[in-house]
Amino acid sequence: MLLTVMLCLPVIFVPWSDSLPTRRQPGPVNNRPIIGILTQEVEDDVMKPFGKTYIPASYVKYIESAGSRVVPIRLTQSTAEYEKIFKSINGLLLIGGSSDLETSDFAKVAGIFYRLALKANDAGDSFPIWGTCLGMQLLTCLVAGENLLTKTTAENMALPLNLTKEAHSSQMFQGFPSDVMKALSQEALTGNFHQYGVTMKTFKENEKLQSFFSILSTNTAENGAIFVSTMEGRTYPFYGVQWHPEVNRFQWDPKLNFPHSSDAVRVASLLAEFFVNEGCFCGLGLVYSNKSCTMPPITFQDLPLNIYMIIFGTGIFIFILSLIFCCYFISKLRHQAQSDRFGYREVVLKGDPKKLNLHGQTCAVCLEDFKVKDELGVLPCQHAFHRKCLVKWLEVRCVCPMCNKTIAGPPEQRNSIGTLLDELV
């Protein structure tokens, strides 16, 4: 047992070990690989406010845990930008999801990278592509030139793989220890979450698929249909799994049947390290090493919906606040102008109804009785009113509400008023 563990350590923990297989002949090795992950369109209403495209975090962790950097590839860029990105990465991961295999932006952009990868591999380089679940389905569609999916429901099921003879001599499983291969075929180590797939019958009847891919494993769907669950290219470094290896290590929803046994974790680790190791021998990153792979600048149109809402809401708030301030400022200016015009600074005072013998009397402006400690305003004609009533009256008219006597007389007359209030407000 100890010997087995010691032999497995270089495979599990050293992603660049020579024991991991690759199609690439010995040559320059890129120990700083970058794997591009193609984003998916957001279809969940809960996620739409946060952006148009997404990548589940488990895929990023899956690749990074094997020693590679990750660059997200958005679906809104030009062909020239995709060609630039292609020359700066060392492999492509097509993730699972629910996009249309023929009309979606996900499928269109994947097609661009697929054709660039074919050209690069034909030229002697080794550019790997990995498809998981929908990504594998998309690879079959790109190779066959048509959608060959049928109903092969295996929803929330962990299954063992029915390995074929080709699996034991494959590139994908060549570096697997024998005990892991045994566990993979006997234990439920692969999480399946799909409704459609390519059946064994459809695969064998399609000449393009037959000549391009080797079937490494199959599984049986809920309806009894046998579908292809693992495949790899015969000459091209293209790989596909209908199941999800990334969930074994990085997803923990208790409602979903994610395999988390030690063997399940080892399977996920070995597959991630295998794919990243394939990318290490891609020469594109070496040729274009002087050109860093940077994301194109994010334009205003690329911002998530919630950012638009925050910007718009902030603008509305600032506008309303500015409007309130302007109205208040204009009101103060108008108020000051009225006070200067009618001179009510000099005729409004604080008084006691008892001293002025106003107890039981009524303000002629508001027709309410005077009360003790009311703030009063007294005109030169000695008629008294509520202060607030008098202020409003004098802003409109400059006569006494009782006798209609003009209150704006010569300065010397206004200054002779007995008790005056220093300020109005």
Give a verbal description of the structure.
An 8-stranded mixed β-sheet has the order 4-1-5-6-12-11-10-8, with helices on both faces. The protein has a two-stranded antiparallel ribbon with strand order 2-3. It has a two-stranded antiparallel ribbon with strand order 7-9. With 425 residues, the protein is α/β, with parallel strands linked by helices. The chain has helices spanning 2-13, 57-64, 79-86, 105-122, 134-144, 178-186, 200-205, 207-212, 247-250, 262-280, 284-287, 305-342, 387-396, 411-414; strands at residues 34-38, 40-41, 53-54, 69-73, 92-94, 129-132, 150-159, 162-163, 190-197, 213-220, 226-233, 238-241, 376-378, 384-386. It has 3 domains: 2-293, Class I glutamine amidotransferase (GATase) domain (Rossmann fold, 3-Layer(aba) Sandwich), CATH 3.40.50; 304-342; 343-425, 2-Layer Sandwich (Herpes Virus-1). Strand 11 and strand 12 (238-241) form a beta hairpin. The termini are far apart.
Quick overview:
Keywords: Endoplasmic reticulum, Golgi apparatus, Hydrolase, Membrane, Metal-binding, Secreted, Signal, Transmembrane, Transmembrane helix, Zinc, Zinc-finger. By secondary structure, the chain is α/β, with parallel strands linked by helices.
Average predicted confidence as pLDDT: 82
N-C termini distance:
92 Å
Give helix and strand order, one letter per element, not per position: HEEEHEHEHEHEEHEHHEEEHHHHEEHH
Helical content band:
25-40%
Residue fraction in strands: 15-25%
Query: What best-fitting shape do the alpha-carbon axes yield?
Result: elongated
The top level CATH class name of the largest domain: Alpha Beta
Total beta strands: 14
Identify low-pLDDT runs: 1-22, 289-295, 340-354, 409-425
Q: Please state how the strands of the largest beta sheet are arranged side by side.
A: 4-1-5-6-12-11-10-8
CATH superfamily of the largest domain: Class I glutamine amidotransferase (GATase) domain
- State the helix count: 14
**What's the architecture of the largest domain, going by CATH?**
3-Layer(aba) Sandwich
Using only CA atoms, what is the Rg?
40 Å
Structural class: alpha/beta
Biggest sheet features: 8 strands, mixed
CATH topology of the largest domain: Rossmann fold
Structural domain count: 3
